[in-house]
């Protein structure tokens, strides 16, 4: 067996002994030997050591390279009192690299999906007293076959807002809409089908959840983001979920898109110096 593997290594230059390697034989060179990356090169590719970070005193600035989502237990550090505990909530995960070359994963809590519906057949009183929310939650729960009960319901809240649609000509500048916030992304389709079953059009109900997060926080692909000091928690090695050097937890409204200047309206008063020119 060893002789056969040695023969294959000689043929392919690859220690795997796979003569059909997708990129062909791996020849010895400046960075490789016997089909493997030499240690000196590997060390040169390694990320620099993570510096000591003080969550109370240090801002974190990183370039976002990817964003996805997953479900995790409700972290009550980032939700208001009265939020159902022991339930799963959507969590945005931002992957990035700091200016110093360290990899980071930011677990962003508290952001939830929403969409809009024209308030044609609903009064503002139905919204303020919670009666409409209860009816919608019950109808959506039936659509999900009770799945919402595992997360404390399907509908998080319903708000009366004034908006203007871009579809067709609108004489009015703004008309009443319902902003419907759902507990989780997979429940949006259930609520949407409730309205569509009644012949009502929904708006922005097909926006992918991570994209919704990026739009609302003025984040573009490859853009730099600022995590202000005092707003994040560093995960211990035991709590980490990825291979990033640093993992943090933060509430979504504390993520600041880095811009050339710092408009006062997007920077908290206690973090005016968080942005970097």
- CATH-derived topology of the largest domain: OB fold (Dihydrolipoamide Acetyltransferase, E2P)
The average pLDDT value, as a whole number, equals 82
**H/E order of the elements?**
HEEHEEEEHHEEHEHEEEE
Q: Whole-number radius of gyration?
A: 25 Å
Helix content: 10-25%
CATH architecture annotation of the largest domain:
Beta Barrel
Low-confidence runs (pLDDT<50, min 5 residues)?
261-277
Number of domains: 3
What does this structure look like?
- By secondary structure, the protein is an alpha+beta fold.
- The protein has 3 domains: 2-45, no CATH class; 60-111 and 212-271, Beta Barrel (OB fold (Dihydrolipoamide Acetyltransferase, E2P)); 114-205, Alpha-Beta Plaits.
- It has helices at residues 2-12, 39-45, 124-128, 131-143, 188-197, 209-216, and strands spanning 32-33, 36-37, 60-73, 88-98, 103-109, 114-118, 155-163, 175-182, 202-203, 224-227, 232-234, 246-251, 256-257.
- The strands form 3 sheets. A 7-stranded mixed sheet has the order 11-12-5-4-3-10-13. The protein has a 4-stranded antiparallel sheet with strand order 7-8-6-9.
- Strand 4 and strand 5 (103-109) form a beta hairpin.
- Helix 4 crosses helix 5 (188-197).
- The longest helix is centred in the middle third of the chain and has 13 residues, at 131-143.
- The N and C termini lie far apart (62 Å).
- The model is unreliable at 261-277 (pLDDT under 50).
């Amino acid at each position: 067996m060893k002789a056969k593997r040695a023969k294959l290594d000689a043929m392919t230059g690859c220690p795997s002994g796979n003569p059909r390697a997708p990129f062909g034989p791996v020849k010895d060179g400046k960075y490789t030997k016997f089909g493997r990356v030499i240690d000196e090169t590997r060390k040169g590719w390694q990320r620099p050591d993570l510096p000591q970070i003080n969550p109370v005193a240090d801002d974190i600035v990183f370039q976002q390279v990817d964003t996805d989502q997953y479900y995790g237990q409700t972290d009550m550090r980032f939700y208001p009192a009265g939020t159902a505990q022991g339930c799963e909530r959507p969590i945005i995960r931002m992957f990035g690299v700091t200016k110093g070359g360290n990899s980071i994963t930011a677990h962003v809590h508290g952001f939830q999906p929403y969409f809009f519906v024209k308030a044609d057949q609903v009064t503002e009183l139905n919204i303020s007293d919670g009666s409409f929310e209860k009816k919608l939650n019950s109808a959506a729960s039936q659509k999900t076959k009770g799945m919402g009960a595992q997360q404390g319901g399907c509908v998080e809240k319903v708000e009366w807002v004034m908006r203007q649609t871009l579809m067709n000509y609108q004489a009015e500048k703004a008309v009443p809409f319902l902003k419907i916030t759902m507990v989780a992304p997979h429940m949006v389709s259930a609520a949407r089908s409730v309205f569509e079953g009644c012949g009502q059009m929904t708006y922005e109900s097909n926006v992918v959840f991570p994209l919704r997060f990026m739009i609302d926080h003025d984040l573009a692909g490859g853009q730099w983001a600022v995590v202000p000091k005092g707003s994040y928690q560093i995960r211990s090695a035991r709590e980490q979920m990825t291979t990033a050097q640093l993992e943090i937890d933060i509430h979504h409204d504390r993520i600041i898109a880095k811009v050339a200047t710092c408009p006062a309206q997007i920077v908290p008063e206690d973090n005016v110096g968080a942005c970097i020119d």
